[in-house]
Specification:
alpha/beta, Rossmann fold, seven-stranded parallel beta sheet, six-stranded parallel beta sheet, 15 helices, globular, disordered N terminus
């Protein structure tokens, strides 16, 4: 809904959380905003038109619409910059927090120009990490502008912090990581072993009880490595007749039909492609292991959600994912873009139930100790409270 302004006692700090899309809020920020609302006067700014298929966010915060688009659009971006500058000048926020690159670039610049005293950007995976040439340089330069415009910078994993420092995007020591990393942790009541959900979802999709199901859960984009995963499945699926693959998530690039057409014969019948789901926990409960063969990732939230539900993961050996998976302890890591090694890892997990159980037990224990949602969110709340009290 449009923002109409609001009046509260100035003894309560006013903060604005800025995201480009409701999908980012839905996946990562809802628990934060609920908890923030207990301590601060909170405004959420995003563009609901970007993810029209999502239901209303239904959060106890003020919401304002800004015309931010996902992709680079010089004129629209300039208009959004002015919108944000006007909003920040009018509302006199004590703190502006941004996530994702577009919101960071426009939000941190507008907050700097408007004189907002505390400006925090949360780096959560760099778009340019998997790019080459001129576009890599341009996107990287934008992240440098974000870092210079912010007063404080957070990263969602230690390896992402190191990557940003090594690439010269931030100064050494400029970036903080809260706790062991991740942006929102895991709701252990929601993501848990669930035999009833496992049985019902498999029945819905005609997946045999004795099938070994590999799950990909996330945006269906090339950057997430979905083409590598299907290629690997095509290779090892012929020798693993019980292995199934399910891809679940919003198809932002329209790749679903291309992925399905990649396979032929009996193996093709064991590849399932689903769209966005409001209940990812059901799909995780129905799987035997997860695969995240991404080319770039700030942390790999879905990996620790899977671990909480009692299943191990295969992931790319890249920054972010290597923080979510402890190699050979909670899961397996393979080089990004290496379909043969990915196929070998799929075959290894598919054929070794004892290994899956060992990795799963260690993974769930690690999540319980380090990534419980209440612990992670409390870390963010305490960080912002301390920042506002300085």
């Amino acid at each position: 809904m449009a923002y109409a302004g609001h009046a509260m006692s100035r003894s309560v700090p006013k903060i604005c959380v800025l995201a480009a899309t409701p999908l980012t809020v839905h996946f990562f920020l809802k628990p934060h905003l609920v908890e923030f609302s207990r301590h601060f006067d909170v405004t959420l700014a995003c563009n609901p038109k970007n993810d029209a298929y999502l239901p209303p966010l239904d959060l106890p915060v003020h919401q304002t619409t800004v015309g931010m688009e996902r992709k680079i659009s010089p004129l629209r971006d300039l208009i959004t910059l002015f919108e944000l500058f006007s909003l920040f000048r009018r509302e006199r926020f004590d703190l502006v927090v941004s996530v994702v690159p577009k919101a960071g670039l426009l939000g941190m610049l507008a907050a700097f120009l408007a004189g907002v005293p505390r400006r925090v950007h949360i780096f959560q995976g760099e778009v340019w990490a998997s790019r080459r040439g001129l576009m890599r340089g341009l996107l990287k330069a934008m992240d440098k502008v974000i870092a210079k415009s912010a007063t404080h910078v957070l990263a969602v994993s230690p390896s992402e912090r190191l990557f940003l420092e090594e690439q010269g995007v931030v100064r050494p020591g400029q970036v903080s990581v809260l706790g062991s990393g991740s942006i929102s942790g895991v709701d252990m009541l929601r993501f848990r072993p669930d035999t009833e959900a496992r049985s019902s979802l498999r029945n819905e999709h005609a997946i045999p009880d004795d099938a070994v199901m590999c799950l990909f859960l996330g945006r269906l984009t090339a950057d997430k490595g979905v083409f590598d995963l299907v290629q690997a499945f095509a290779s090892c699926g012929k020798n693993n007749p019980k292995l199934w693959l399910m891809l679940v998530g919003p198809d932002e690039e329209g790749v679903g039909p291309r992925l399905l057409s990649t396979l032929t014969g009996e193996v093709a019948g064991r590849l399932l492609v689903e769209g966005f789901t409001h209940t990812p926990e059901r799909y995780i409960a129905a799987a035997d292991f997860l695969c995240l063969p991404s080319y770039r990732e700030g942390f790999g939230m879905v990996v620790i959600e899977a671990a909480a539900a009692g299943i191990p993961s295969i992931g790319s050996h890249i920054y972010g994912v290597s923080d979510a998976i402890v190699e050979n302890e909670t899961g397996l890591l393979v080089p990004p873009g290496d379909a043969p090694q990915l196929a070998a890892a799929l075959s290894r997990l598919a054929g070794d139930e004892a290994l899956r159980e060992r990795l799963a037990l260690a993974g769930r224990t690690r999540v319980e100790n380090e990534f419980r949602q209440e612990k992670v969110v409390a870390g963010y709340v305490n960080y912002f409270r301390e920042l506002l009290n300085r």
